[in-house]
Amino acid sequence: MPSLSIAIVGAGIGGLTAALTFARQGHSVTLIERRTGFSEVGAGLQLSPNASRVLIRLGLAPALRRVASVPERVVVRGIASGRSIGEVALGTYMQQRYGAPYWVVHRADLQTILLDAVRSEASVRIATGRKVEEVRNAPERAEVVWTSSNGARESLAADVVVGADGVWSKVRHAVGDTNRPTFHGYVAWRATVERRLVPEELAENETGLWLGAKGHVVHYPIFSGNLVNVVAIERAKAPVDGWSAPGRAEDLLAHYSSATPVLRELLGRPREWLRWSLFRHPIRKLARGRIALLGDAAHPVLPFLAQGAALAIEDAATLGALLADGPQDVAEALAAYEQHRFERVTRIQAEGRRNGRIYHSGAIVAFGRDRIMQWIGPESMSNRYDWIYGFRAPE
């Protein structure tokens, strides 16, 4: 089968998954990364069955099982009261219902596994230290222009260019979307802590979700259960400076001054916090001509549904399926990709915003929310997202 030449801009989770997918199909791949190395800051990822199913099909299950955790449930509590509100079934229930696990994993572990797999593919070239300046569309070929770390300006022509370069995507401009993402009014604090230092009642094999009007907190075991990933969401009037910024624990504890003591104890344990601003960007275009976008470059999602990495992995699988037949009609295949993904991603973006409103409800709405969670039970709390977790790439 004839192969395509494919340039991927960005070597994050989505870009690496796409590179591996294309290489396994026999395509020639150039992976272009601005950074000169692949070190990843410590943070966790949730890989629900719609994402883990894709990674398993790529042959990554043995490596992931060595580093991932499988929480048995989500326990939902009130931040101020500490009272249990409800549960969401994960673990064995997810595996049986969807045929794939609900994994939680250290981002650096997943990136390392993907990178090792990509490096084992002879048809993949990795070009680091390249800052993309421009992407050009043409009927016969697309072109990427970059500046290398030594200042030299270079270009590469390819049958397809895939933008996997994140929220502030340069490739996005090439499909006709020049709007900038907007700050959503929240900052995410992220840290990891050794599991032995976590309060005993919060160190079980489960995900904790704490809800309150001023924000919410999520924690779950990662790194084969030896670490606990902690994410605290804070309402904020302005974004942090730069991509991320260090945070002081005393500032976070002041924000959550009314939290129950055991949660405050957890928030006081990490030695270092990093803060990320949350941005939103409504999906407008996923493809034009020979250029396509995936992941945050196309559709940043708020982390209130734990689907950011999962959607990038889904995008890569869908794009791979539609380009599997090689150089038939690339523009037509990319148009089909946009058609396949647009409605689903728009719905997930909206559901994430809705979850944020529900999580941060005032007292009256929160009372009804809590009653509903208690009434429908753990399994039904999972089942309401059948439409997300049951995803399979087109054949």
From TrEMBL:
Q: Tell me which cofactor or cofactors this protein depends on.
A: FAD
Q: In which domain of life is the source organism classified? A: Bacteria
Q: Which residues form the FAD-binding domain?
A: 5-348
Q: Does the keyword Translocase apply?
A: no
Query: InterPro entries under this entry?
Result: FAD-bd, FAD-dep_Monooxygenase_BioMet, FAD/NAD-bd_sf
- Keyword Zinc-finger attached: no
Q: Which UniProt keywords apply?
A: FAD, Flavoprotein, Monooxygenase, Oxidoreductase
Q: Which Pfam families does this one have? A: FAD_binding_3
Q: Which GO terms describe its molecular function?
A: FAD binding; monooxygenase activity
Identify this protein by name: FAD-dependent oxidoreductase
Q: What is the lineage of its organism?
A: Bacteria, Pseudomonadati, Pseudomonadota, Alphaproteobacteria, Hyphomicrobiales
